[in-house]
Specification:
This protein is α+β, with helices and mostly antiparallel strands. Helices cover 13% and strands 29% of the residues. It folds into 4 domains: 64 residues, Gyrase A, domain 2, CATH 3.30.1360.40; 123 residues, Cyclophilin (Beta Barrel); 176 residues, no CATH class; 137 residues, Cyclophilin-like (Cyclophilin).
Amino acid sequence: MRVLPVNTDVLLVELDELSQAVALNQSLLDDPIAGVHELVPAARTVLVRFHPTRIDAAELTALLLERDVSAPLGADGEIVQMPVSYDGDDLAEVADLLGVTPADVIAMHTASTYTVAFTGFAPGFSYLVGGDPRLNVPRRSTPRTAIPAGAVGLAGTYSGIYPRVSPGGWQIIGTTELPMFDLRLDPPATLRPGMRVRFVEAERSTRQQPTAPQTAAVAGDDSGSRTALEVVEPGLGSTLQDLGRPGHADLGVSRSGALDHDSARLAARLVGNASDAASIETHGGLRLRAIGELVLAVTGAQVSATVRPASTPETETETDAERPAARMPAPRSAPELQAFALRDGETLELGFPTRGNVAYVGVRGGFAVAPVLDSLSTDVLSGLGPEPLRAGDVLPVRRAAVAAVAQIWGADAPDDTLHSRLPAPGDVVTLDVVLGPRTEMFADDAVQALFDQQWEVTAQSNRVGLRLHGPTPLERRDHRELESEGTSSGALQVPPNGQPVLFMADHPLTGGYPVIGSVASYHLNLAGQVPIGASIRFRAVTDPQGQASATDDASLTKEN
């Protein structure tokens, strides 16, 4: 067993085999360590997220190394019967690869009891192990762009079921009608780590649905309010975001949430909401119309914010040339980093960022939108949460509770505001990096190149990750295939082309490319504000635990 660094608040435990990873994960669930708040089991690893203010990495490492990992795999987990129609497109090809008949493949697949080892790839996607060892087939050489929900596939020694339509390279041998992930169920994932599965041919099964109780979908409750925000123009990448949905790794769900937690919290507090209330996150170009009297605030990226008066019956039918000057609407600028009123019918227009990457719009009372797993965050990778904003959407606003409205400056803001310290396209931003857990897989020159060169943020970047480009790709010295293991926000995953991807809020729960290092947790908010066209220079952290409590002042340093 090895304990490897990932970040100031994340460790990766590497074990010799899958059964040990499953045993360690179960041990930590049965007998938790104080300060540990999430576990992500994988093929031979367990990712451990912890609170550094409650336990430090050295103490946690010692406690992890004491754990017994000798428990047998899948000894007593709950058994789920999985009805399968063995009509998959790849069934005949799998049979040819193994030198048997399709009937033999079906017999092998239904003869064993599988164990859910870990989840990942998508919510509800479980990696099942313990099948017939002869069912060891490679992934397809060319992945499909769309595999249907319920497809049962093989990859290596794993078996799995696709919970929704998605691309993939597994060999599909059948389909099941049993839902793998359904938000009407409690819990929504049919399979979770430690459970056992028996595959049976559909015509011999009872086709029973999961026994978990179903609950009605939660309806948006506006608590008697008649106010709302209408989306006139959605702008770029506009979504609802709060601080995410942590603690659902057993369902295959990553945290998601705002790219810049500090700015999202500030937008909430400026209008008197709880600091974890949802705001609108946008890359600019957003236009919102008030239905009723509202109080808003704009934080994050530096954008122009213009309030345009409500149209009258006369002005609605007039062009700008026809409208007399006396009746011309008089737009006004919304104050920076302060709460302001948006009257009934008025429109807030946001420009595109001149500094920073994402802006946040908070509204007093918060949005009366149904949460998904206790969060209003839109996860663009998994498809969980509210849909991205579209023109014509009406977002109901709750009636505000009595609460203080925060104010960070008086009438005159200082020259060195939060906005002025955000990066602009062309700037070079310095981000601290904790090396590990797979630094040893890279040549020494590659590690040096990570820190010596600037990395441009390319146009292919999004909420899943910043795709970086540097003049010298990062070369691996160890080219062995890395089994899937847990990932975290800030991870610098390096695909075969040597150009790293910096995982952001909507990153996958597990990944199969090595992570050379991770942007330190205290710099993740700044990383979320790095725009396309800016560059990043990485700086090695020599004392991750000492830096974990550092202020964010250092994170705002940038080069020109």
